[in-house]
């Protein structure tokens, strides 16, 4: 009986220590933080804010530089507008959204619904990222119903394989049925976005031509669900890529940036 009681005592102490470490990780996301350059590769204007707006806001608050690289201009995303007119409108909306978050918006030059995975686009993306030299790159998860989301993720993965780069690659998820929906997304990392949910929403709502008021609730539901998984109110989930067949296991931590993932990778 004494042996059993001793076991219970050790067990409870271990649980308390683990809880305290977990809580401290959430409460002190900016400790030992060094400024980073983060690139969010987005298939269309509005995907970055809807999917990663919370992380972007947290990173900007921590003093990081965030660049949103729009792979296409959303040329076929506005009813009764020519591709040129739509691109112009969505470029302005993207810049407005970037200003809300404090991120810089740049454009790759691909055409909406026609983004190809080929050597030309791969080399172009390599040149852009070599010039920026990011610490972290975020891209859409390739298993998605939208071809541009598939292409964006695969292009990022191709570049990631180049030994000249040393950035960490993370994939994000989308949800806007029937236009985009991520499949087989098993997170390895979560970020706590509870304090910046309203800022994320404000940035996403800048894309007025896309009527976000009609679909943004899906991202709020997703953030609530990921928060439930990670024991915070709202969260965004990510998959950390590896230069191997595996994508890694769950980290067991939830923070406001991806600093912990970088520490674990070293």
Beta-strand residue percentage: 15-25%
The CATH architecture term is 3-Layer(aba) Sandwich
Spatial sequence of strands, sheet with the most strands: 3-2-1-4-5-9-8-10
- Assign the CATH topology: Rossmann fold
Order of helices and strands: HEHEHEHEHEEEEHHEEH
What features would you describe in this structure?
The chain is of the alpha/beta class. Helices cover 44% and strands 18% of the residues. Residues 1-30 and 245-250 have low confidence and may be disordered.
Give a quick set of tags describing it.
alpha/beta, two-stranded antiparallel sheet, 266 residues, 8-stranded mixed sheet, Rossmann fold
Task: Put the structure in a nutshell.
Helix content is 44%, strand content 18%. The protein has eight helices and ten strands.
Topology at a glance:
Blueprint lengths: L1 H26 L9 E6 L4 H15 L3 E8 L10 H19 L2 E7 L8 H14 L3 E5 L6 H14 L7 E5 L2 E2 L3 E2 L7 E4 L4 H8 L11 H15 L4 E6 L13 E2 L3 H7 L1
Parallel strand pairs: 1-2, 1-4, 2-3, 4-5, 8-10
Antiparallel strand pairs: 5-9, 6-7, 8-9
Helix pairs in contact: 2-6, 3-6, 4-5
């Amino acid at each position: 009986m004494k042996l059993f009681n001793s076991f219970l005592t050790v067990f409870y102490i271990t649980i308390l220590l683990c809880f305290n470490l977990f809580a401290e990780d959430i409460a002190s996301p900016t400790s030992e933080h060094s400024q980073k350059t983060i690139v969010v590769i987005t298939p269309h204007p509005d995907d970055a804010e809807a999917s990663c707006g919370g992380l972007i806001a947290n990173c900007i608050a921590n003093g990081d530089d965030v660049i949103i690289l729009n792979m296409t201009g959303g040329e076929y995303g506005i009813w009764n507008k020519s591709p040129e007119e739509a691109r112009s409108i969505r470029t302005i909306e993207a810049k407005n959204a970037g200003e809300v978050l404090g991120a810089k918006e740049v454009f790759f030059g691909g055409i909406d619904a026609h983004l190809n995975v080929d050597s030309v686009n791969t080399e172009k993306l390599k040149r852009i990222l070599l010039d920026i030299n990011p610490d972290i790159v975020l891209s859409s998860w390739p298993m998605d119903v939208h071809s541009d989301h598939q292409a964006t993720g695969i292009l990022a993965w191709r570049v990631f394989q180049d030994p000249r780069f040393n950035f960490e690659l993370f994939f994000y998820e989308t949800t806007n049925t029937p236009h985009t929906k991520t499949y087989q997304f098993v997170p390895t990392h979560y970020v706590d976005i509870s304090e910046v949910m309203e800022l994320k929403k404000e940035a996403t709502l800048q894309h007025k031509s896309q009527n976000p008021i009609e679909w943004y609730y899906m991202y709020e539901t997703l953030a609530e669900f990921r928060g439930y998984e990670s024991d915070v109110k709202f969260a965004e989930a990510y998959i950390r890529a590896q230069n191997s067949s595996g994508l890694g296991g769950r980290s067991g931590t939830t923070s406001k940036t991806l600093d912990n993932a970088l520490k674990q990778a070293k």
